[in-house]
Amino acid sequence: MKLHPDNRNGPASIDRRNLIKALVAAPLACGLPMVASASTPLVRYDAASAAGREMLAIYADAVTRMQALGDNNPMGWLWQWYEHFVDGTTSKSAEITRIFGSAPSAARTLAGQTWDTCQSHSGQNANNFLPWHRLFVWYFERIVRQVSGRADFTLPYWDYTSSDPAKRGVLPPQFLMPTDPVFHSLYRPERTSLANNGLPIQKYQPGDPMDISAAMAKANYSTIGSVQGFCRAIDSGIHGRIHVLVGTSKGMGSVPYAARDPLFWVHHSNIDRMWTSWNRNGGQNPTTATWATKAFVFADTNGSGATRKLNSAFSASSLGYAYDSYIPPTSSSYLTATSAPALASGLSTTAADRRQTLARAAAGATLGAGPVSVQLARLAGAPRAAVLGLDPAHPQRHAYLVLKDLHAWGQPECCTTSTCGPAMAPARWAKTPMSATSISSMPNSTTTAVARWTKHWARISTVSMSRRSCDASPMRAAARATACW
Length: 485
Prior knowledge:
- The protein is of the alpha+beta class.
- It is built from 13 helices and 15 strands.
- Strand 4 and strand 5 (305-309) form a beta hairpin.
- Helix 1 (16-25) crosses helix 2, helix 4 runs antiparallel to helix 5 and helix 9 (230-246) packs antiparallel against helix 11 (263-280).
């Protein structure tokens, strides 16, 4: 540690950079042991806490070291990024050839086993999302310990759903310092202006995108029929929203580049904390599910490969770690298996029993650069009315447009607007859309959106869907009309 005499004949002063490096090299001041015993789990801390801030200093130093390692090093930054997804401008095979050549080697084989294995954003089983990412982050954490020389390191979590307005949706300041001598490695320019200016990333979003109460109240881990399970609710909900609101198409906002941003890892530490909290609050993992026996290979310490089944990651404690705090049960507590279908759809049990599908699109729609219209055909037996699904004699009844299985293959910074209208709209309506709903979707994920129309509409029969603020990657959606009262 370098000492600098100050301008007076007083005690020597320590510059900030070397002070932080000294902290990185020494045991944490908060009294954590250098190595946790087998019976004492290591603790992951809130990035905003004193212990979390010290961990971020270790992390920033390790990122710098990992970035200096070669592309062919399993403990290097590019390798870890590529385990999630390879650079979107190339392919896995092309990158393996570029880095390792065509000659067989142990590293080449390991790259083939580990790269591009992210679950489940390439059409794999959606249940894989939580356990695969838990293992991915866990092995990454082990590598950071070895690279940093700190056996007590744990990956902090970014608590973006905190009730504290100063933390809710606001990036930790250590990720916003491009010229800082230590934390510069945590900064990435491929983020939204709100994110990199330390403002709430949800500032201009409708409602409260940081609210996870509905997801935390899910009764089952897996989706059953039309009732979304906890894993899918987290994946397509708060997980995807954070990616979209933080990153651009060359950063967190796009699957091929997400893991290049150091923020990715503290985001997924928090996603893992949500899963752990759900389990602590009574949520049960499907321990006997066949899909959970699938095994994946990850790069481990010393550049070796390690194989683990998904069901080996169903417990954080079995992997030797815990969190400094957990998310308590929601005020509505947990849904029972019998109440989940009705409540998950936002309807009372009685209303759910009285739903009726009135019309359906004959086929899905592929969205392009311009608006795409889909004709809804009235189903046999559906009541006839001037307004589809509405009856003047029963004004309490509502009709809903359901856009199901919205699927995006490209970067997720997309807002999809659906507008319902009559087949022959009066000219006076041309300047005023009658209803619209905006949807943000992760690539290779599906979303269901519902828009309600009212008695002021007439002869609803056309659904027009368009998108804005995104690239030209294809999207697809199916639509149907449902009456509820």
